[in-house]
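Let us work through a complete example step by step.
Step 1: write down the sequence.
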Amino acid sequence: MIPCETLFSHDRLALFGFGVFETLLVTDEAPLFVDLHWQRMNQGANFLGLKLPDKNEWLKQVQEFIEQNPSKLPWALRVTLSGGAPLSNLPSTLLFHKRLVPYTPAQYALGIRLHILPSPRNEQSPLVAIKSTNYLENILAKEAANLQGADEGVWLNTKGYLAEGTMSNLFFIKDGTLFTPSLASGCLPGTRRQLLLGLARSLQIPTYEDLYSISDLLMSDEIFMTNALMGIMPVRQIDDIPFPIAKESVMRVLELAYQDLVKHS
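Step 2: predict the structure and record it as tokens.
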């Protein structure tokens, strides 16, 4: 177990951003939904030809880091698998980093603002299916959205269909039906996206994954974003178009079900 501050300069992570990572929410000294995170990390590692420790060893190292970094507040744990340096016989390494959860109570109460990004997400890229440490495109897009006064940016793909947020997956609701861009759009297979789709279907909420246009989004009744740290985050505005946050809505039903799932995970 190595903190993120320790990294060999010839590791491919340092040289090329070659690696995969997961961000876990830690509450009450326990990481949430570890199976989903390990599965996605393992899939990404296999895609890059890297060796990830088996789930038991991975979880053991995660738990050791958590125990060494106690906190009363929920926090974010980033677990990174480096690319190593095969020519130097340097193996892939698990790195750990702790940070605060960046979302505020006001954002959950009032909703966040989105900006439709002018540059497209390349849905043909092999990297869209994994959580790669080569994250510069996401960071620059997020900064561009912030400069427009938004909290998050939303990508369209090269064909003009909705894809995802720079740090999150996109959902919207119309007439009681839940919609989200399919993986064919170029969106990341998010852990909370997977959970929310399962929850919606268990609650018998009509649910569709497909390719959607910006017009579909703008005609919706509710919009929200998801990721491991934010859970379900309501959207109150897209560029200069407001979206009222309803107190009783499909999103609220999903939110309560998600909170119950977290409580019993």
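Step 3: interpret the result. Helices lie at 12-16, 34-48, 55-68, 105-110, 136-147, 191-202, 214-218, 250-263.
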